[in-house]
Amino acid sequence: MNIHTAYNMANIARTGDIIHLNVGGKRFSTSRQTLTWVPDSFFSSLLSGRISTLKDETGAIFIDRDPSLFTPILNFLRTKELFPRSINVHLLMHEAEFYGITPLVRKLQLCDELDRSSCGNVLFNGYLPPPGFTFTHTCSSFPSDTAQLADPGMVRIICGHHNWIAVAYAQFVVCYRVKESTGWQQVFTSPRLDWVIDRVALNAKVMGGSLGDNDKMVAVASGTEIILWTICPDGNGNEIGVFSLNVPVEALFFVGNQLIATSHTGKVGVWNAVTKHWQNQDVVPINSYDTAGSFLILGCNNGSIYYIDVQKFPLRMKDNDLLVTELYRDPTEDAITALSVYLTPKTSDSGNWIEIAYGTSSGTVRVIVQHPETVGSGPQLFQTFSVHRSPVTKIMLSEKHLISVCADNNHVRTWTVTRFRGMISTQPGSTPLTSFKILSLEDIDGHGGCAAGTEIGPYGERDDQQVFIQRVVPDTDKLYVRLSSNGKRVCEVRSVDGTSITSFMVHECEGSSRIGSRPRRYLFGGHANGSIQMWDLTTAMEIAGKVDIRGPTEEELLELLDQCDLALTRTPDMSPAASFTHSSTPRASTSRYTRIQIPPHAATALHNVSEALIDSFFGGTGIKVGLIYSSQQSETLSWCFLAIYFVFTSAVVFQCLFESAASTDSEETL
């Protein structure tokens, strides 16, 4: 046997060698040929010596990876076949990329792309490409070193008004308008600024005033400075002026024709379209605000709620006074950290029946009402809830729900609101509806977007259902839309081009001029590449009943958290005054009810007794009655909840007896 023949035989023997592997503590045995038939893979480099090996006590090559995911990879290397229905495509593709199994990666990518499309799903409504970044001139009135810290092409903030949206990038703002015939069109681009935009406000429907009925206005703020433009019908913009609040601007918005800027330090700035005059007003430190018609409502650090009628502003120029009037003072004088005003449909000569919900630094939620017939009297305390243990950061009072969010990882509490002829009623009063959290991490260095552009909500004050928008981690292409009434997922939206979502907003656009056309709600997403993507939330709400998932699943949540460095993230600070430190220490929630511990077996027994009671009533009637019991969060109950439980059970019994007598043939499930 010559040397050449011996070499060939040795080579054949080497390719048929049995290789023993220890993957994450589990042993595998296979042939060298099975592991190395894919060129330039992890295994070919490992067995050729290009990668150093670590062996266990038995001599098997140790690989510190998941053995459950290695099993389908080894089966693919053996058979060149893949069975995707029995695997997690995303996890397996990640492992296949690590091992460098190119044929398997390509197959898994194809499986993944079957569920994804650059045209989006049925909810995807439109795509606005990034605008051009060519500018004819620069506004350099207020240079800022922070301009170099922001990504110039990333969308920072989106705001909407009627059928317009304003999109703020780092150093310029772009306005778009939608028409039924032409769709979305870019109508205005501001000059390039030398400072980073922190706030943006849009008024697309100026009613009267010296600017005319067709003009629109857009304003941006950075630091203490504000620039205001008017947008003409031809799309040209004229700079109205540059104004200073003298302190950092933390909120910028329009009330009618008036541009309003506020700061938590206790400054309010107002620009009026009639007088074209800017005026600053000192008030006490501001924590929250809302608007009601021409009124600006302020929640302040001293526990008071103030209002300013901005329509009367031109009449008070000589006094340099905005007529700041105290409307209500919290009984415990806790800082008013969140505020929501609801104007009921009922009107009189004195105005609307005004309802205000507010939250405090101690976690208390209160509802006050103002009767139009009792002008001389201030608002009356209507309801108080002491369910939060952290400062309330957001609150909304709508027709059907009262929603509050506290600083404990966006803990949401929702109550149903009972109304009689449009006005809030105590019979039977507000009842607890749901409790859940919305995890939303922020990027410490700001690369994940601007805090003003990533507000979770709730959105849709005038709608039957309000929604939250959840972006779990800063660098993600996925958002979850969740109902405020139960926390369930309305839909999940993903960027159609794979880019990260850096800002978002829910806005309702007016319908067409056709009879029967109604406004539609859209979710606007701003992206790291400068594009705007839109999803139809009206359609999503119509099909939401088919989904029974509360936000991200545990698997989805862990997958998202794996994509970011938690050391570089944080939970959101208190809004709107992120830099504000309360002078009063948050108080623990108190209750006048004695709390008791109900062990699980006693709670179960309580439920069984109730079911037995109902069964004794309806055993032979043919009526199906079901009770749902859940101990989702805690075994701690209060006497008041027990009372509510028995009252509800009695109500179910009497209602079913009444309906059974009316129609014995009907069958109901309660």
UniProtKB/TrEMBL annotation:
Superkingdom of source: Eukaryota
UniProt entry keywords in alphabetical sequence: Cell membrane, Membrane, Phosphoprotein, Repeat, WD repeat
GO cellular component, one term: plasma membrane
Keyword Ubl conjugation found: no
Localization of this protein: Cell membrane
Residue ranges annotated for the BTB domain, each copy included: 17-86
InterPro entries tied to this protein: BTB/POZ_dom, SHKBP1/KCTD3, SHKBP1_KCTD3_BTB_POZ, SKP1/BTB/POZ_sf, T1-type_BTB, WD40/YVTN_repeat-like_dom_sf, WD40_repeat_dom_sf, WD40_rpt
Record's keyword annotation contains Cell membrane: yes
Primary localization class, coarse: membrane
Family assignment from sequence similarity: Belongs to the KCTD3 family.
Function: Accessory subunit of potassium/sodium hyperpolarization-activated cyclic nucleotide-gated channel 3 (HCN3) up-regulating its cell-surface expression and current density without affecting its voltage dependence and kinetics.
Subunit structure comment from the entry: Interacts with HCN3.
UniProt-recorded name of the protein: BTB/POZ domain-containing protein KCTD3
Gene encoding the protein: SHKBP1
